[in-house]
């Protein structure tokens, strides 16, 4: 028994409506899925960028830490080398200033300090271990006069100093010029460290 035309028409309309509803639902589902995929890709891209930024930041920190460690190692090596040089210098001068040949060095240091002090009269303080005498003062006065034209009268100071070298002062003791070995080495410390650093770099 065949269906009536009216029923078939209703059924056909129902199928068309159902197909449209399904088509619409599929389209909406596709749009939702695409939007979700776009959002997911955007999230992944942002995460990739954030991860790269974090990795770059970590890399910079690591590079900075490595440079700091290298610099610290370099400074420690330079300090160790400087201390070793200092010990060698101390040992050398501990022996040198007990010899007669040190007289010429002390005469030059006395003249240098007298010129630095700039007074016409000055006292010369020295270590009891050094062989400083009046004849050395006269030679220092002569040396200073010949080299600079500066005239000074020197006398020995009753108060000794510790350490090698000399210290000159005004007669009232208010102004002085320290020309002892440790002070001279401190003045030269920058140059000594530069030489050590240059030689360390060459060795590496």
Structure description:
The protein is an alpha+beta fold and 204 residues long. The protein has two domains: 1-71; 97-192, hypothetical protein PF0899 fold (2-Layer Sandwich), CATH 3.30.2320. Helix content is 72%, strand content 10%. The chain has four helices and four strands. It has helices spanning 5-96, 102-117, 134-148, 181-203, and strands at residues 121-126, 153-156, 165-169, 176-180. A four-stranded mixed sheet has the order 2-1-3-4. The chain is rod-shaped. The N and C termini lie far apart (106 Å).
Termini Cα gap: 106 Å
CATH topology of the largest domain: hypothetical protein PF0899 fold
CATH superfamily of the largest domain: ATP synthase, E subunit, C-terminal
Report the structural category.
alpha+beta
> What count of domains describes the coordinates?
2
| Oligomeric nature of the chains | single chain
- Mind telling me which CATH architecture of the largest domain this is? 2-Layer Sandwich
Short description:
The protein has four helices and four strands, in the order H-H-E-H-E-E-E-H.
Give me the secondary-structure topology.
Blueprint: H1 5-96, H2 102-117, E1 121-126, H3 134-148, E2 153-156, E3 165-169, E4 176-180, H4 181-203
Parallel strand pairs: 1-2
Antiparallel strand pairs: 1-3, 3-4
Helix pairs in contact: 1-4, 2-3
């Amino acid at each position: 028994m065949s269906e009536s035309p009216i029923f078939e028409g209703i059924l056909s309309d129902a199928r068309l409506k159902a197909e449209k509803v399904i088509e619409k639902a599929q389209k909406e589902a596709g749009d939702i899925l695409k939007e979700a995929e776009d959002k997911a890709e955007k999230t992944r891209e942002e995460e990739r960028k954030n991860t790269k930024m974090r990795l770059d930041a970590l890399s910079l920190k690591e590079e900075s830490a490595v440079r700091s460690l290298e610099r610290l190692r370099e400074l420690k090596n330079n300090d160790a080398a400087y201390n070793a040089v200092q010990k060698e210098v101390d040992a050398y001068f501990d022996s040198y200033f007990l010899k007669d040949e040190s007289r010429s060095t002390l005469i030059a240091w006395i003249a240098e300090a007298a010129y630095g002090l700039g007074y016409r009269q000055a006292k010369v303080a020295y270590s009891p271990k050094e062989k400083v005498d009046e004849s050395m003062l006269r030679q220092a006065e002569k040396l200073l006069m010949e080299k600079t034209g500066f005239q000074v009268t020197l006398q020995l100071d009753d108060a000794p100093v510790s350490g090698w070298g000399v210290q000159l002062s005004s007669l009232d003791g208010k102004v002085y010029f320290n020309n002892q070995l440790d002070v001279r080495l401190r003045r030269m410390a920058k140059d000594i460290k530069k030489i050590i650093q240059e030689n360390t770099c060459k060795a590496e």
